[in-house]
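Re: that backbone. Tokens:
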């Protein structure tokens, strides 16, 4: 009987801590009187990237006196809207939101703003609204530039086959990543070092150093992965099926993030006509770090989510305490210049995995095999 009561008590405590057991909602940080000070909305639990952010938020939250609740939208703008409404009803003073769909989120943040909530766009910029107070982000153009540079640095001669992939067109970051990569790749496409093999839209503008939003949209529309591993895999398979052996050999692949990079890399690795491939990624997800160690993914861009989560929480706390939040740049979201705090990124290859990710305390060496 005692054991049973202890179990019930334990279960009750666990359920209270995870926001009453709803699987898409998590993490209440020391909530006082049911009120929540800071509401955090993240896009999905199904990608390791956002679990990294959740874990880093949790460690920042544990050292604050403010109550915080994190909700996940599970890839749905409708859930996201409900999440924001739920948090507004709980009296949040600050909303930190990473949007599922940059444009669709505008109405939710406008509702928050109307309720007197300060809105911080997190990692992904919400577009076409004047309801944003701040944007906390990595330097996404430099993420794309780092990817482009990696491919350029590893190419010699001319005529190297280049396969381009992009993120979801509903995510403003997909544009920034592609723009950054194009900044570096385009001169090397123009001089013949690379030949684009899988995008007629990119080929049509390959002599242009700067692309318009519409031109970027056309390319992204053609080579989008939608941030989806399966979509990335089937696109890569279709591209390699329609390519000739001469379009393969030593190949260069711009993959927009780690999840899609692993899918695409597996497809290229399985093709007998691909003798060697170089492929980019970002997020330093554990599975991709292992791929990098094993030589199956060439690089990943490390975006230290400890910094981003801490920056966003510190900004929220400054707002609550009536202090000025620190920003260092602005981002235009189509309607306004949003004051932003931007964090630099680090390129990780086999050569610096240990110093960048293990020695910095981001991951434990025991999470990986074959680490030198
Ligand atoms: C983030 C990336 C992430 C991607 C897919 C982007 O907005 O910046 O880190 O891999 O979304 O979730």
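Recovered sequence:
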């Amino acid at each position: 009987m005692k054991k049973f009561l202890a179990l019930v008590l334990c279960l009750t405590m666990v359920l209270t801590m995870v926001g009453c057991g709803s699987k898409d909602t998590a993490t209440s940080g020391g909530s006082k009187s049911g009120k929540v000070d800071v509401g955090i909305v993240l896009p999905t639990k199904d990608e390791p990237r956002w679990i990294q952010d959740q874990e880093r938020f949790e460690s920042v939250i544990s050292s604050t006196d403010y109550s915080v609740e994190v909700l996940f939208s599970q890839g749905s703008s409708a859930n996201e809207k409900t999440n924001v409404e739920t948090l507004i009803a709980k009296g949040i003073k600050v909303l930190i939101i990473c949007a599922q769909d940059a444009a669709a989120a505008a109405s939710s943040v406008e509702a928050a703003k109307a309720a007197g909530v300060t809105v911080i766009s997190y990692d992904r910029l919400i577009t076409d609204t004047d309801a944003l107070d701040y944007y906390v982000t990595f330097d996404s153009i430099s993420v794309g530039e780092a990817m482009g540079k990696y491919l350029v640095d590893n190419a010699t001669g001319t005529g190297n086959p280049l396969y381009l992939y992009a993120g979801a067109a509903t995510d403003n970051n997909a544009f920034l990543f592609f723009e950054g990569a194009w900044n570096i790749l385009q001169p090397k496409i123009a001089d013949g070092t690379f030949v684009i093999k899988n995008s007629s839209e990119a080929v049509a503008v390959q002599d242009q150093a700067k692309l318009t939003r519409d031109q970027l949209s056309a390319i992204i529309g053609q080579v989008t992965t939608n941030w989806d591993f399966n979509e990335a895999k089937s696109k890569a398979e279709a591209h390699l099926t329609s390519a000739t052996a001469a379009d393969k050999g030593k190949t260069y692949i711009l993959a927009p993030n780690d999840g899609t990079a692993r899918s695409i890399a597996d497809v290229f690795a399985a093709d007998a006509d691909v003798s060697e491939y170089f492929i980019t990624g970002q997020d330093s997800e554990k599975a991709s770090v292992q791929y990098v160690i094993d030589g199956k993914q060439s690089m990943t861009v490390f975006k230290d989510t400890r910094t981003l989560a801490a920056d966003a929480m510190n900004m929220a706390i400054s707002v609550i305490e009536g202090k000025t939040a620190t920003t260092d740049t602005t981002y235009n979201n189509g309607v306004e210049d949003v004051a932003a705090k931007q964090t630099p990124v680090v390129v990780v290859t086999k050569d610096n995995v240990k110093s960048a990710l293990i020695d910095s305390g981001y991951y434990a060496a025991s999470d990986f095999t074959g680490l030198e």
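The pocket of beta-D-glucopyranose is lined by residues 47, 49, 123-124, 167, 171, 173, 227, 257, 282-283, 303 (CB under 6 Å). The first strand starts at residue 25 and ends at 29.
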